[in-house]
Amino acid sequence: MNTPVSPSHASAPASPATEPILELKDVKTHFPIHQGFLFRRQVGTVKAVDGVSLQVARGEVLGLVGESGCGKSTLARTILQLLPTTSGAVILGGKNLSLQSAEELRTQRKGLQMVFQDPYASLNPRMTVFATLAEPLLVHGACDKSQITARVAELMERVGLAPRFMQKYPHEFSGGQRQRIAIARALALRPEVIIADEPVSALDVSIQAQILNLLATLVREMSLTLVFIAHDLSVVKHISNRVAVMYLGKIVELGEASDVIERPQHPYTRALVSAIPTPNPDVERNRRRIVLPGDPPSPIYPPAGCTFHPRCPYAQEKCKTAFPPLVSYEGREVACVRLGEI
Amino acid sequence: MPLLSVKDLRTYFHTRNGVYRAVDGVSFNLEPGETLGIVGESGSGKSVTCYSIMGLIPQPPGRIEGGSALFDGVDLLRCTPKQSRSIRGKRIAMIFQDPMTSLNPYMRISEQLVEPLLIHEKISRGDALKRALAMLDAVGINDAAKRIHYYPHEFSGGMRQRVMIAMALITQPELLIADEPTTALDVTVQAQILELIKRLQREFNMAVIFITHDLGVVSGLCDRVQVMYAGKIVETAETRTLFYQPRHPYTRALQQSIPSLQPKGAELFTIPGMPPDLSKPAIGCPFAPRCAFALPKCVEREPQLAEYNAGHLQACIRVQAGDL
User: What is the ipTM of this complex?
Assistant: First the structure.
């Protein structure tokens, strides 16, 4: 698909005052679909990420929201180059990661770490906390051998775990504690950027708050840059400076977090915000909820034009022709041709 | 007369590592047509309570140690298998969290939809299929006449949950138990399913027990909310009262830890510590070790649910003594 390059990185971005540490330029991640056994041929393409341009400033927390299947996790894996970029560039600290060799990439990844959603699956059950946290240090030679125990203890304290649990295995910890171990592992190499893919959605409310507090403290004290992926808008609003809303592989709205969530402009963001149940019975009973018809379309056969138009309450004929580019509107960027009319 | 009356239900799991008191003395009533929300964190016993009522507890390791659950005069915990079959799936239906694992992947939707009708009612196959089709229409599946012959994998998550709801409601039950039916779904689809449950409840005038960990979902849907902690009910009240005048320290702490209710950027309120290990015998209030208001007397004896106001029960001895 020939999506026009969105002008978001050409125009002035919403807030980053300093030089961006992480920059995505028209990143596309496509997966070919093959069919047949002897004569394998490509029958289609899943456009999981389809032309995403973003800038993340040093010390910023960028929230990335969208429903399942919108490509937010694929985007995270593409930023880390766990998946190759089909086209476009992922630039970390001035270096284009998509062009580098495996060797160079390994060094670059020291500065770019990830925290996964499920702390039950992301920790090796046969490795103690010590082994889990020491591994990155040893692989990268980031720490003198004699210093390792001290460094592991320091990391554990950093995330609020007592160092005396160093020789315990993941099954001996609760979900929240496991997520702390995963965060400590991500911090081991003193990265500049951390990508957290739904780090709290597998946890209970009271534990969620603990992990969010921890992440916020780490960002503040270690001047980390955080890309925070979630489907829960209230969590994203709380922790992020800016938020990007994705729908079917594309960013549809990007701007200052509380601004976007309190006064959403794109019809999809509006529906998303109105779908969140609020823990306030009077508000909840009286408000009018925008209930979107149907399910998100398949990314193999995305609708022509604006991919949201089949579910959009404001769709018109002109929405079916081309995907609208992100344009600046009231201090943010929105991809909708009917801006201002609706 | 209440539709369902649960009294002092105790369900324990006997494992190699000890006895887990998953549900430990739960009592509540449910009126016809009422919507009751049961909230709590994982392991608080909210699902086990409903599984016990439905007779879905695997025995062993589970065992229902005591109590009763009267549904229209029949004790569900002690009735004969024949009696229980005439109620379960006919007058009480249940929907589960994950619609993919609760539908049979080898059976067409049509087969699964008519099954409860053929079992519970004297009805011909053709008529049953007609009812199934009407039900699929009612839950908002477009092109139902064609899609009724699909297999579950041909539906999306939200559609599967609609099929589950159609299957549960096809016998027009008086009580629907919904165990986190929207937790696995996206927010926009969750909104669709919640609207659907609300509409169908009005149409069929059935009672609903809605199990969830999300206080937001409860606030718009339920008439009454019951908060569970460590296998016990700690507070129950009419929804508005519970949200605006919570009394029990756990309910208050749970509300305070919701991000959307707190000022942006501020340190989030957290409950220190972790839920208790249910296999260890505990004396006194199970929340006391994490409670900001705990006193030595809190761990001396077990608090009982007592009326704070009409219809508002809570189990904190300090609130009961009037000093909170």
Answer: 0.77
